[in-house]
Amino acid sequence: MSASVISGKAIAAARRATLALRVTELKTSGVNPGLAVVIVGEDPASEVYVRNKEKACVETGIYSEKIEMPTTTKQEELLAVVQELNGRDEIDGILVQFPLPDHLDEDAVIEAIRVDKDVDGFHPESIGRLVVGKETFVSCTPAGVMVLLEESGMSLEGKHVVVVGRSNNVGKPAALLCLEQHATVTICHSRTQDLGAQVASADVVIVAVGRPEMVKGDWIKNGAVVIDVGINRLPDGRLVGDVEYEVAKERAAAITPVPGGVGPMTVAMLMENTVKAAVRHAGIE
Ligand code: NDP
């Protein structure tokens, strides 16, 4: 069996198009969604991510502002910028691009962002609300993963989901969201014993590790759905995921490619969260 390929690229484009119509409609009632993206230093990968976010803002009609700060930025200078953005009415969402230079405290920056502008969903209060199943900004990558799972057509109820990776931004929220949909969830990490056996028992595998093709294709159960969050650049320049795609796709029912899978969804979900914030700020939800 060869898997159907879940094209995050196509699904994200369709969602951006729908969102653009919604933004046009909102603008006629005086609501102009706005996103501020803060980037500190010159990390090349971060610059690409920020450019993609700006492009998506243009495409969807969202006002965007990029604040570029030098690598030498002090913690209090960055916090002052966040505070200023917190107070501005035309900014509905604030995103500080990570990683920050080593001397800056990412947790303190996340906590400084007003929760109602936390479109990245990283604030402890946003995550806490997710834990107790309350409405919140869900961080963009796991939110995108859930859309892709929905598109795969598999209902998660009663299914065994194995999440490989337990980061706060991907693995843990993805696991919680699957639990919310009544899956039985196993979270694996670097100390998990016999990862292959865990993966082999999964109806759905979500991998967010950051190691090229570390999940072997022959671990995948026949008919499973595979969502590969990893993005790894090989020495020859190729981009690959965390799953051995060519082998896994012969066993899976559905699988996401890298690139063109989870990556574009992350940006689309950021746009959706920004519009959600704007609607809430306008009090029309
Ligand atoms: P982190 O480095 O924060 O987390 C990696 C996780 O993988 C950790 O929980 C770690 O376990 C686990 N891990 C490491 N080695 C192993 C192993 N041998 N076996 C099992 N688990 C292991 O990464 P992120 O979650 O932030 O990102 C993961 C990947 O996803 C990266 O490639 C990143 O580039 C990509 N990514 C893609 C996005 C997109 O938009 N497509 C967005 C965000 C990330 P432990 O906790 O024990 O250390």
Can you describe what's shown?
This protein has helices at residues 8-28, 44-60, 75-86, 106-112, 124-131, 140-152, 171-180, 195-200, 245-248, 262-281; strands at residues 4-5, 34-40, 63-69, 93-96, 160-164, 184-188, 204-207, 225-228, 232-233, 239-240, 254-255. By secondary structure, the protein is α/β, with parallel strands linked by helices. The strands form 3 sheets. A 6-stranded parallel sheet has the order 1-11-8-7-5-6. A 3-stranded parallel sheet has the order 3-2-4, with helices on both faces. The longest helix is centred in the first third of the chain and has 21 residues, at 8-28. It is globular and about 50 Å long. The model has no long low-confidence stretch (mean pLDDT 97). The site of NADPH dihydro-nicotinamide-adenine-dinucleotide phosphate has 26 residues, from helix 10.
Summarize this, please?
With 285 residues, this protein is an alpha/beta fold. The chain has helices at 8-28, 44-60, 75-86, 106-112, 124-131, 140-152, 171-180, 195-200, 245-248, 262-281, and strands at residues 4-5, 34-40, 63-69, 93-96, 160-164, 184-188, 204-207, 225-228, 232-233, 239-240, 254-255. Strands 1-11-8-7-5-6 form a six-stranded parallel beta sheet. It has a three-stranded parallel beta sheet with strand order 3-2-4, sandwiched between helices.
